[in-house]
Design a protein that fits this description.
This protein has about 90 residues and is mainly α. About 70% of the residues lie in helices and about 0% in strands. It contains six helices and no strands. Helix 1 runs parallel beside helix 6 and helix 4 crosses helix 5 (about 65-75). The radius of gyration is 12 Å and the shape is globular. The two termini are about 25 Å apart.
Length: about 90
């Protein structure tokens, strides 16, 4: 992650509000700890990460949304420091 010690409280609050289920900072950090730069470059790994975030947040993500996110990551060059960006993209769908 980006050296920040805290996951954005806005992202956690948004996830918690949308899902009605509390997602802890530690849960996000645990998931993020397994993410490498290769995860963001490898489409199969990126899809697994999206599904993991979806499951953790209890927010269903359609195949189309997964495709949109993968496409956006490839196009923008989103890197390992941008897990918050991925979560925000998922919440907009």
């Amino acid at each position: 992650m980006s050296g920040k010690n805290n996951i954005s409280k806005d992202v956690l609050n948004a996830v918690n509000k949308k899902t009605g289920k509390p997602i802890t900072e530690n849960a996000v950090k645990k998931l993020a700890s397994g993410v490498t730069a290769e995860t963001m470059q490898n489409e199969e790994e990126l899809r697994k990460l999206i599904k993991s975030v979806s499951a953790m947040a209890k927010v269903p993500v359609s195949d189309q949304t997964v495709n949109d996110i993968v496409g956006a990551v490839k196009k923008s060059g989103v890197n390992i420091d941008s897990m918050e960006t991925l979560m925000k993209m998922m919440l907009k769908k």
